[in-house]
Design goal:
two-stranded antiparallel sheet; 10 helices
């Protein structure tokens, strides 16, 4: 049973239910694949995954060398596979016994006629265990070092140059105009410029009068603050008063 409020809404001429078709059209509104420069939006392929697009742009999706879900393996040509298979078979055939300490047996003329091995020596000494630990450490380091080498070849040098031109403000000497300290140049906002322009129109170069004006200087900035702000905004103030 409907409550009185629902009945009034159904009888009211001003109440109109929300059109589900309009809401569906709003949800189907197309949005750009990524929020970024136009160059990146054009280079982004909707048919590929995020990982594949990052690889095509020469980027790494994650700094973790072991990413969840695994990565795609790039298959090499069959000729290299055959060469590697033949080389592995030859190495298996040419395998020698593990290295041990022994004594070389020579004849009277000095020619080697044989060797004697110490049977009491363990085939796997303590040195081998240390080498295994070193190999494990080197493999873990290689996973971190070879992050860039695992990426496929990409030919987007022109895209990188265009993005660098957009991101880096260039000067006449083709050098970055960003200071070493990391703090960029201070730009005066539109509201602050209007605030200063009213003070200059009324008081001219008299910064002390600007500081005493409570109506146009409600923030009660001091003479030094106003002088520095006017200088950064580009106003030429002559004199100390």
């Amino acid at each position: 049973m409907a409550n009185p409020r629902q009945r009034r809404k159904s009888r009211s001429s001003s109440y109109k239910p929300v059109s589900q078709s309009r809401r569906a059209k709003k949800n189907l509104k197309k949005v750009p694949p990524i929020r970024g420069p136009k160059l990146l939006q054009e280079a982004w392929d909707k048919q590929k995954t995020v990982r594949q697009n990052y690889a095509n742009l020469g980027l790494v999706l994650s700094l973790d060398p072991i990413t969840p879900g695994g990565t795609e393996k790039h298959l090499e040509p069959s000729s290299q596979e055959t060469i590697s298979s033949t080389s592995s078979s030859t190495t298996n055939q040419n395998e020698v016994a593990p290295a041990k300490f022994g004594r070389i047996v020579r004849d009277d003329t000095g020619n080697v006629i044989g060797f004697e091995l110490d049977d009491n020596e363990e085939p796997n000494g303590g040195g081998n265990n240390e080498m295994e630990v070193l190999n494990d450490d080197s493999e873990s380091r290689e996973r971190w070092i070879n992050l860039s080498t695992n990426l496929p070849n990409h030919d987007n040098q022109h895209l990188i140059e265009d993005l660098s031109a957009i991101a880096a403000p260039m000067t006449g000497t083709n050098t970055l105009s960003v200071p070493i300290s990391g703090v960029g140049a201070r730009h005066v906002s539109a509201g602050e410029l209007k605030y200063l322009r009213q003070l200059v129109q009324k008081h001219g170069s008299n910064v002390a009068a600007m500081a005493r004006d409570r109506r146009l200087n409600p923030e009660q900035r001091t003479v030094g603050q106003l002088r520095r702000t006017l200088k950064k905004a580009g106003f030429e103030i002559h004199g100390t008063e």
